[in-house]
């Protein structure tokens, strides 16, 4: 059913209201029979889109309200989340940043509502990847992610005035079983190397001070050993891979 403006050829053109055979409804602008311009599309399942259309497809600025209570507000292209936008998930988490073909892709910030922790860095096709910073209430991790997991050299920076340097090592699989079944995913393990006073983080890497220099700073050798032991288990969990439905465990 359609009620609204038409052009000389009888096509829907201008402002109109339509009820589709599947029960969805649309009210907004038309051009030559197609949804084009500003409009509101209401789905039978309770979802709705308010924004711009181009030739029957979401294109431009728009907000989509999903049935589970989540919401996306930002750029669209060819019916896909594409450009820059903010997604608020049903559990309260938020992602603000770049999108490509419906996926988080580029630079963005993901905030975990339950813990207040934030991932700030790169994304590739929906997964955390590239230079990043994982920020918690009393400490942060700086390094790189690959396929949603921390990888290679990095450091934990603590509010008490020290840093723990090290790297994430990927555990090797038993090659004898690879031909029989796919290898299991193994979380990378944090391998600490030294604790130092605070150092500057530069885009081209850094040269942490020696342990001798660090002993003159914020922690003593004994304190450093205790901090390493106590924090090692905590940070392994803190930088564990996460997705949009999972939460970073508390680091209290």
Automatic annotation (TrEMBL):
A single GO BP: meiotic cell cycle
Annotated localization: Cytoplasm, Cytoskeleton, Flagellum axoneme
Composition bias type Acidic residues, residue spans: 224-233
Predominant location: cytoplasm
Positions with biased composition (Basic and acidic residues): 1-13
Chain residue ranges for the region called Disordered: 1-32, 170-189, 200-252
Entry keyword set: Cell projection, Cilium, Cytoplasm, Cytoskeleton, Flagellum, Meiosis, Repeat
Database matches in InterPro entries: MORN
Keyword Nucleus applies: no
GO cellular component term of the entry, any: motile cilium
Task of the protein: Functions as part of axonemal radial spoke complexes that play an important part in the motility of sperm and cilia.
Name by which UniProt lists this protein: Radial spoke head 1 homolog
Species: Ceyx cyanopectus
Gene: Rsph1
């Amino acid at each position: 059913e359609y009620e609204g403006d038409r052009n000389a050829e009888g096509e829907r053109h201008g402002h109109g209201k339509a009820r589709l055979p599947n029960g969805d409804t649309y009210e907004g602008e038309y051009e030559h029979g197609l949804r084009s311009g500003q409009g509101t599309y209401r789905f039978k399942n309770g979802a709705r889109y308010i924004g711009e259309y181009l030739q029957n497809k979401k294109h431009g600025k728009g907000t989509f309200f999903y049935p589970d209570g989540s919401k996306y507000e930002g750029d669209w292209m060819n019916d896909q989340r594409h450009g820059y936008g903010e997604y608020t998930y049903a559990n309260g988490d938020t992602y603000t940043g770049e999108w490509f073909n419906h996926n988080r892709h580029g630079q963005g910030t993901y905030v975990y509502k339950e813990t207040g922790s934030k991932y700030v860095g790169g994304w590739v096709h929906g997964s955390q990847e590239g230079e990043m910073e994982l920020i918690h209430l009393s400490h942060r991790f700086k390094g790189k992610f690959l396929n949603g997991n921390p990888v290679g050299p990095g450091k934990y920076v603590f509010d008490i005035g020290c840093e723990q340097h090290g790297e994430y090592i990927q555990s090797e699989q038993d090659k004898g079983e690879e031909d029989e079944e796919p290898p299991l995913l193994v979380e990378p393990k944090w391998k600490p190397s030294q604790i130092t006073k605070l150092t500057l983080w530069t885009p081209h890497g850094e040269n942490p001070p020696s342990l001798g220099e660090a002993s003159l700073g914020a922690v003593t050798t004994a304190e450093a050993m205790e901090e390493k032991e106590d924090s090692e288990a905590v940070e392994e969990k803190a930088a564990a891979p996460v997705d949009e439905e999972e939460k970073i465990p508390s680091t209290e």
